[in-house]
Design goal:
9 helices; alpha/beta; 7 strands
Length: 288
């Protein structure tokens, strides 16, 4: 007896709005602090997807457009290049970059719901989704939309967060709070989403891609390293991050003051081993 087909459900308007608002709020911090670190993953996706030789490329969840601008300089002059994000403030950054690109290298920046783009079927050779699948309300719907948009033989290249145990970028602050003996759940704090849920079972991810309509699926692990070389720099950036600022509202001023030195100590302990602070990502290539 065959496996039941995956039931695809569109995100609700409430879910769509929540994700959009989250990344509108994160846009300036992402632009100034994180975008350069994500480029390493984005460059791999561009290579895996053959974006540099494609006639038509779509990026979903493009953030502030840094990877699009870098990719455009190596793509075929005049190739169709559409760059999109759910957040209007992110797309505003994309549009600024697009305007400054030389002729033949410009790209179109649009606000799009990656699960329901409204773009024509069979219209792209390549789709790139860097650090998107674990964030979108319905990853299965996004995968199915990717199949619809790709031409036969087209490539969908994506990354998403993988192994939490190899991701001190996200665990250093929570671990430091636990060291202080604070139980955030008891204080009513609930993380907005589980960033590791989608990638927790890679065989299930591959199966979901096949059920969405892809014919071949490949995955491998890759760290996304941050460029901080001191715990002080890491902590300073983290404590200015909107999501961490929300966490701090559940702490007293005294607790928040005690937390920062612990984060600095833990970060410096890791850096002293010659290991950069990172988050572990999974890279995915799916072929229609």
């Amino acid at each position: 007896r065959g496996r039941p087909r995956q039931q695809y459900t569109m995100a609700t308007e409430e879910q769509y709005t929540a994700v959009r608002n989250q990344w509108d709020a994160m846009s300036a911090f992402f632009h100034d602090n994180l975008q350069s670190n994500t480029l390493a993953l984005a460059n791999q996706l561009a290579s895996l997807s053959k974006a540099y030789t494609a006639d038509s490329v779509l990026e979903l969840g493009a953030g502030c457009g840094g990877s699009a601008a870098a990719r455009a300089l190596l793509m075929r002059p005049g190739a169709k290049h559409v760059v999109s994000d759910i957040a209007e403030k992110m797309v505003a950054y994309c549009k600024e970059l697009a305007e400054d690109m030389p002729e033949g290298r410009k790209f179109e920046a649009r606000v799009l719901n990656a699960e329901d783009t409204g773009l024509d079927s069979d219209s792209f050779d390549t789709i790139i989704a860097n650090l998107v699948l674990h964030l979108t309300p319905s990853a299965d719907t996004l995968l199915k939309e990717g199949v619809r948009l790709l031409k036969k033989g087209g490539r969908f290249a994506a990354s998403f967060w993988g192994d939490e145990s190899k991701s001190p970028m996200f665990t250093l602050v929570p671990d430091s709070i636990k060291e202080m003996g604070i139980n955030m759940a008891e204080r009513g704090f609930c993380p907005p989403y589980n960033r590791y849920a989608f990638g927790s079972d890679l065989e299930a991810v591959k199966r979901r891609c096949i059920e969405a309509g892809f014919s071949k699926v490949f995955t491998y692990g890759c760290p996304m390293n941050l460029d901080y070389v001191t715990g002080e720099d890491f902590a300073e950036a983290q404590f200015n991050q909107p999501q961490v600022k929300k966490v701090l509202t559940f702490l007293s001023e005294e607790e928040a003051e005690k937390l920062k030195p612990i984060v600095i100590r833990k970060a410096n302990e890791l850096l002293s081993t010659g290991t950069l602070i990172s988050s572990y990502a999974t890279m995915l290539l799916a072929v229609k």
